[in-house]
Amino acid sequence: MMIQTGIFLLFVFLPVSPASLPLVINTWHFENATAAAWSALQAGSSPLDAAQAGCTRCEQEQCDGSVGFGGSPDERGETTLDAMIMNGDTMEVGAVANLRRVKNAVGVARAVMDYTDHTFLVGESASVFAEDMGFKSEDLTTNRSRDIFSQWLSQKCQPNYRKNVFPDPSMSCGPYTPKAKLHSGPRRKPGLIDLRSHDTIGMIVIGQNGQVAAATSTNGATNKVPGRVGDSPVAGAGAYADSSAGGAAATGSGDIMMRFLPSYLAVEMMRAGASPSAACKTAITRIKERYPDFFGALICANTTGGYGAACNKRPGFTEFPFMVSNAQTNGPVLQKVDCI
After folding, report:
1. What is the pTM of this model?
2. Taking residues 161-187, what's their average pLDDT?
3. What pLDDT shows up at residue 172?
4. C-alpha–C-alpha distance, residues 65 and 218, integer Å
5. What pLDDT, on a 0 to 100 scale, did the predictor assign at position 92?
6. Residues involved in catalysis
7. Are residues 31 and 61 in contact, defined by beta-carbon separation less than 8 angstroms?
């Protein structure tokens, strides 16, 4: 933990997990994604390739319905995808957001890294870029996403993410126009939006020599305003990797978490000497001070293979599951951390 005394910061180091390399760690109980990344490493792939392989597996399997196609439809009933990948050796980042028609979002993010000098492509232009790069154009809608959308319409489009609009969102699906006078503070009571509508796979892979890579993939928040982009594809928010310090990845209420760059903060904490567990807790606490009811968690790993995690306690969310595979486990192992 971090204790502030005057202008000085004192780190009280908490016990860390046994350090072992190589390492794969990812959010939630997405075991097959961990196994795919670990298998790629064992076959000689780079940490960057392994991170991509792990997230691709989750996209293919539609992990929890919150990653990949056929989940989290927006207000128009469309599923769009966000993803990023980061090379901690070179600090290169590839990211896409509001991607349409292409299922392999993390693959497109990698293509942005490999085939452009850019970092981030969004929307229809990102989709056209993906198609130009040879990615298959497919419908991302499924019967499941249609059912989610139909049920939402039957509930008069509630809950949603609108505020300060007219007519009253509780009575109408729009169109929406701004109210003449804005009110301050959140309109929505905590818990109205399903906690599990924010899931993301965030993965950190560290090679035998300490090379760090990170990747994320998500289909965003259910019933989001079209065009919304959360924290997942934003470097420093959804994930961050630096081979001189470590890596971190976040999951949860992206609209809040991205304002604090928790992944970047955690990596910088580890650079300053904090354990992965302490770094994760500090980053979560920073958000909790401003938004005590936010839903979120963070995983962290340093370049020696030590790892940790932290989460914010909410009703119904008191512990956070994450997957680990390293030289000691030689395969995916589910671990959990108590929320703070």
Report:
1. 0.91
2. 77
3. 82
4. 9
5. 98
6. 200
7. no
Give Cα 120 distance to the centre of its chain: 16
**274: burial class by Cβ within 10 Å (0-12, 13-18, 19+)?**
buried
254 is in an annotated binding site: yes
pLDDT at 1 over 90: no
Helix 105-115 vs helix 47-61: crossing angle, to nearest 10: 150
Residue-wise pLDDT tens digits, 242-268: 999 999 999 999 999 999 999 999 999
Architecture of domain 2-69+80-137+193-338: 4-Layer Sandwich (3.60)
229 is in an annotated binding site: yes
Q: Compute the distance between CA of residue 196 and CA of residue 215 in angstroms, rounded to an integer.
A: 20
**Mean pLDDT (whole number) for 133-146:** 97
**141 in a labelled binding site:** no
Query: Are the C-beta atoms of residues 300 and 248 closer than 8 Å to each other?
Result: yes
Helix or strand (DSSP H, E) at 310: strand 307-311
Structure tokens of 248?
A: 């971190």
Tell me whether residue 132 is annotated as binding: no
